[in-house]
Design brief:
It is built from ten helices and eleven strands. It is an alpha+beta fold. A hairpin with a 2-residue loop joins strand 1 and strand 2. The structure holds adenosine-5'-diphosphate (ADP) and magnesium ion (MG).
């Protein structure tokens, strides 16, 4: 164990843990076995050793408790006890960090300071050393670089949450900026992928300006001379696209569109046979009385000579 022992756990209550810190540890940095360790302070991480796992806690509170059993003359360090409050964030197993409260410490487990290597491991989201990553910034406290894997972030669903003005759009722009920068500078394999960014508020225009080689920007405009998105015929005759364009309801209007497009694909090249099949159905075995009546009502629209002929034909039904 190359970490420095600094105290022990004194209270475990749900996921909140309290630990007593040794009395002589008031510095913000320590040198131990050639490593720089960060001292005990709010927001710093500490380790609690439990069997094969090193549980990682984040310091969220500190207090001094007076020890009344010690006489006033004794050293100040002995008269006061320094207690820190911790929040468990995960654990180390075989040098890898796993987030989540799978293990909790027990009373009297030893408390250790954590080295920067281990903190980097906490902020490390890649599975192996070969995973392609992009850098999105650095941790605020330790100033350690934060890399996130490209696979798993850009090819899945992500959500960025925050109040208005908290930097959501900025974060998204930064993500794509870092990705495109990587593609340009390192010719990564991901240049086979393509991304479509629909920008309603015109916030991401700088991306296209910064990477003109690989970005193509369309300024959509409904006026006749503005930019347009061109759909091919195949793409247009698609039930998903049409139901989005027409805001078709899922249960009633969309099935109608789906049916329509299926029939269109089937008979598109051969309208004559479609007409034949339709007439067959109309006058086939199970014809509707209403169809015939409807046709009869149309007869006056035809020329005088034909009217009698059509009536004769329709009379058969
Ligand atoms: N990381 C950052 N550093 C400095 N300023 C930022 C940062 N992120 C956002 N901002 C600023 O904060 C403001 C709001 O950011 P924005 O991304 O538009 O927020 P949101 O989309 O969450 O409403 C902008 O003026 C932006 O310049
Ligand atoms: Mg925004």
């Amino acid at each position: 164990m190359d970490e420095l022992n600094v105290g022990k756990v004194t209270l475990v209550k749900g996921t909140s843990v309290k630990a007593k810190v040794n009395s002589d540890l008031y510095q913000s940095t320590y040198f131990h076995n050639g490593k720089i360790l960060r001292g005990i302070a709010i927001n710093e991480f500490v380790l609690m050793r439990k069997g094969y796992q090193d549980i990682v806690g984040k310091i969220i509170g500190e207090e001094i408790i007076e020890n009344y059993n010690v006489s006033n003359e004794s050293l100040e360090q002995k008269r006061y006890e320094r207690v820190i409050e911790l929040y468990i964030i995960g654990y180390f197993f075989e040098e890898k960090f796993y987030s989540g409260i799978k293990y909790l410490p027990m009373i009297n487990d030893s408390l250790y300071l954590i080295s920067d290597d281990k903190i980097s491991e906490i902020y490390n989201f890649k599975k192996t050393s070969k995973t392609p990553v992009i850098n999105i910034g650095k941790s605020m406290l330790e100033e350690l670089p934060i890399d996130i894997p490209i696979n798993g972030v850009f090819n899945s669903h992500i959500g960025i949450f925050g109040n208005t003005g908290s930097g959501k759009s900025n974060t998204l722009a930064k993500l794509y900026h870092s990705l495109l920068h990587k593609i340009i500078t390192q010719h990564s394999k991901i240049d086979k992928s393509s991304f479509t960014l629909i920008d309603f508020n015109g916030e991401y225009g700088t991306l296209a300006k910064s990477f003109p080689e690989i970005c193509h920007k369309i300024d959509l405009n409904t006026k006749s001379d503005g930019d347009k998105i061109i759909f091919s015929e195949n793409e247009f005759w698609d039930d998903e696209l049409l139901s989005v364009l027409f805001s078709a309801t899922e249960k009633t209007q969309k099935p109608f569109l789906t049916h329509l497009i299926k029939s269109k694909l089937k008979y598109d090249s051969d309208l004559i046979s479609y007409l034949k099949i339709t007439i067959d159905t109309m006058f086939g075995a199970n014809q509707h009385r209403e169809t015939v009546n409807l046709l009869k009502s149309l007869v006056p629209l035809f020329s005088k000579d034909s009217q009698a002929l059509i009536f004769d034909e329709l009379a058969k039904f």
